[in-house]
Amino acid sequence: MTAATIVAPEEDARAVRYRDAEAAVWRRYGLSPTERFVQVGSPPTRVRVVDVGSGPPLLVAHGTFGNGPAFAALVRELPDRRWLLVDRPGWGFSSPLDYRAETFAGTIADLQRDVLDALGVELADAAGHSIGGVYALRLAQRHPRRVRRVVLLGAGPMVDAADPPALIRLMASPVGRVMLQMIKRRRLTEGMIRGSGHGSSIDDGRIPAVIIDWRRAVNRETDAMRHERAMIRAFMGRHGWRPGLTLSDADLAGIHHETLMLYGTGDSVGSPTTWRRMADTMPNARLSIFEGVGHMLWLDDPKRVAAEMRVFLDEYS
Fold this sequence. Notes:
- The chain has helices spanning 13-28, 72-77, 104-119, 131-142, 166-172, 176-182, 186-203, 209-221, 224-235, 249-253, 272-281, 297-300, 302-315; strands spanning 3-6, 34-40, 45-52, 57-61, 82-86, 124-129, 147-153, 236-237, 240-241, 258-264, 285-290.
- By secondary structure, it is of the alpha/beta class.
- It has a single domain (3-315), classed as 3-Layer(aba) Sandwich (Rossmann fold).
- The strands form two sheets. Strands 1-2-3-5-4-6-7-10-11 form a nine-stranded mixed sheet, with helices on both faces.
- The longest helix is centred in the middle third of the chain and has 18 residues, at 186-203.
């Protein structure tokens, strides 16, 4: 595979509106990121990386909630890390990929390795939220010398026991096409976030309006959710996940990296029992459970999430 830096793509009116929504989030949190575009793989895939903060590199793969701006509250609490926030293929300004369940593990591991190559980063910590956790684990599994430690932010489809949640099943169904049109409305975008366990954080202002406006821009001004639906449909079988997405016990037992798993009890994916068993299967994993927080747990309690990450990352530096 090849990896190279490339120039930014041309932007149409929708892209400009989306970029404005992103910029509003970064301003709200007092952050000034830069971006780089890299070309990786064969056939070539354009990937955008948002680079913010300074210090040891932390490569981050996002979930279905969204890309770089989703982590702004957490980045602000951990400015002493170089956050490499990757737009997964099909999101933001990254070009889409045609995923196949049987080749997914190798595809996402190699893509992240190539991103690190293009950025000139030999070794990084890897973090992931939701399905981004699968990205982080597959990178550690397939290219162990490129990863120092792993942080899993919230639950995701890491193991078969984490059944697809109702929202993901709905997206995969024929109704999903209609749903993608409906969530362009701000009220329904907010409803998605509330449904992920964050109603109280919206009501008390911990999740500011600018986050909801940005997430609506994802739905209205980009094709991210259409690409996400295509990916989900590639992985969903009649009775759950198709083989190739989740990690087996043997896969988990073979990942020896120090791993921090953070999970909120308001998260609808899996259960504390599921994640305790996963942590027990991995040789060097630890689980920290946050009572009452939702799927994007750092949106509810960014200071505590940042504090746990800092202790973990510094302990093994």
